[in-house]
Amino acid sequence: MIVVDEKLHRPFEVVLAIPVRTYDIDFVGIVSNIVYIRWLEDLRLKFLDEHWQLNQQLEQGYAPVLAGTEIEYKRSIKISDRVIGRLWLSNLGRLKWTVKAEILSNEKLAAVATQKGAFISLQNGRPIRIPEEFQKKYCQYKNLI
């Protein structure tokens, strides 16, 4: 079930079933807000595994870094809920990238998030232009839709 407008394109979308663990629950019996950050990290790692292999980036001397996260919580998640995360590339600029995500609980929207980042040189820690191979892949995707 896609919660966000079905007409929207979601370049390089990944989907992840997310188990709710006992240590994810706070004293009120719901998933703690900080857990959503970990889930977003899990989604970004899956995204990298499937589309922009992190090991290759490191070998070439650069890596993605996170510059910011915004999360809007829509409903609480409990330990017995079935949770699915979705993440996709929403923008790729000259220097920065943006991913969007949604967390569904029992097929209902529980949270939406936006994360922004860049790539940095491992040699000096400074931002670099978005690697050409990623620009090409993104442009190819946009030309297909």
TrEMBL record:
Pfam families: 4HBT_2 (PF13279)
Alphabetized InterPro entries for the sequence: 4-hydroxybenzoyl-CoA_TE, HotDog_dom_sf
PANTHER family found in the cross-reference section: 4-HYDROXYBENZOYL-COA THIOESTERASE FAMILY MEMBER (PTHR31793), LONG-CHAIN ACYL-COA THIOESTERASE FADM (PTHR31793:SF24)
Protein name: Acyl-CoA thioesterase
Lineage of the species this protein comes from: Bacteria, Bacillati, Cyanobacteriota, Cyanophyceae, Nostocales
Top-level taxon: Bacteria
